């Protein structure tokens, strides 16, 4: 069962991460892309490291049903917020221009 869960995690991460990088590259000025990609990667690594420690304590004290419910609510709120941030009508940068709207 653990191997199946790991495989599903890998497939999901493999689908989401390249999409986030593409979206970031499209919405960020060329001069800021390195910084933006560094922030994305660092935030993901820090989130993975902290979530295991924090959620382990949550599972130990409050149980797995609460843990999975809390993670589901957090994921839903994050997805909902991300949708509204990304759905703003900011056009992607035209190649060679730096004056379009950007996230960074």
Automatic annotation (TrEMBL):
Task: Name the domain of life this protein comes from.
Answer: Bacteria
Enumerate the spans annotated as Major facilitator superfamily (MFS) profile domain: 1-104
What InterPro entries does its record include? MFS (IPR011701), MFS_dom (IPR020846), MFS_Exporter (IPR052714), MFS_trans_sf (IPR036259), Sugar_transporter_CS (IPR005829)
Compartments it resides in: Cell membrane
For the keyword Transmembrane helix, the answer is yes
Its record classes its membrane topology as: Multi-pass membrane protein
Q: Which UniProt keywords apply?
A: Membrane, Transmembrane, Transmembrane helix, Transport
Any Pfam family: MFS_1
Which sequence ranges are marked TM in the entry?
6-25, 37-58, 64-86
- For whether the record's keyword set contains Membrane, the answer is yes
Please state what the protein is called. MFS-type transporter YhhS
